[in-house]
Amino acid sequence: MGRKWNNIKEKKASKDANTSRIYAKFGVEIYVAAKKGEPDPESNRALKVVLERAKTYNVPRAIIDRALDKAKGSGEETYDELRYEGFGPNGAMVIVDALTNNVNRTASSVRAAFTKNGGSMGVNGSVSYMFDATAVIGLEGKSLEEAMEILMEADVDARDILEEDEAIVVYADPDQFHAVQEAFQQAGVSDFTVAELTMLPQTEVALDAEAQTQFDKLIDALEDLEDVQQVYHNVEAEE
């Protein structure tokens, strides 16, 4: 799990460096989640997940409120949730999740990003079977022993609990996301360093320098697309 945590940290650091783009994507994601049910995180668990993620990226309250107000008011824009699967250099596996109000535009843009950067599109299921949907919760201020005891006392199941870079990282099934957070919140944890619903690869691959450079260009091109919300892959984080 350690190397997977390295990939998550690398991805988060990259997003932190592109705040305006990330804030815009969160605005869309919050709006879509709010439109699925009540625009209240206490009754809309999907919205609560998005807002918890937004908090770890320091998304400004004004952007969150604007998206929620749009969902509460006259916002009638509809978005489709799409998943694309494909391959990068040396057979690296890539999953792309998108929210779009123009399916043809998004499909064309994603395909172009793959083909122009040494990749290729795959069919549905060609890649995702090698990934596991996972809740990842990171926190500081607790020891590994304390974290394990907190989850045991709350009767919360976790796949794994690790200590990484002076932080505790909990991996759990997606339906345990809120239970993990609530257990730690009851134990006095108010902020989380990571709160993600992600796709973790079952195995990872290492690329040589040339392939890594090409792969990085592919990931950058995909993440730069307006409609793309998340990009997952199975390439090891560079040391």
From TrEMBL:
Major place of localization?
cytoplasm
Keyword annotations of the record? Cytoplasm, DNA-binding, Transcription, Transcription regulation
Q: Molecular function (GO) terms listed? A: DNA binding
Subcellular localization: Cytoplasm
- Cite the TACO1/YebC-like second and third domain residue spans from the record: 79-235
Which superkingdom heads the taxonomic lineage of this protein's source? Bacteria
Q: Does the keyword Transcription apply?
A: yes
Q: Which GO terms describe its cellular component?
A: cytosol
Q: Where in this chain does the record put each TACO1/YebC-like N-terminal domain?
A: 3-73
Pfam families reported in the protein's UniProt record: TACO1_YebC_N, Transcrip_reg
Q: Which GO terms describe its biological process?
A: regulation of DNA-templated transcription
Q: NCBIfam families from the xrefs?
A: PRK00110.1 (NF001030), PRK12378.1 (NF009044), YebC/PmpR family DNA-binding transcriptional regulator (TIGR01033)
Q: Which PANTHER family does the UniProt record give?
A: TRANSLATIONAL ACTIVATOR OF CYTOCHROME C OXIDASE 1
Give the family this protein belongs to, as stated in its UniProt record.
Belongs to the TACO1 family. YeeN subfamily.
Q: What is this protein called?
A: Probable transcriptional regulatory protein IDH44_21105
Taxonomy of origin reads: Bacteria, Bacillati, Bacillota, Bacilli, Bacillales
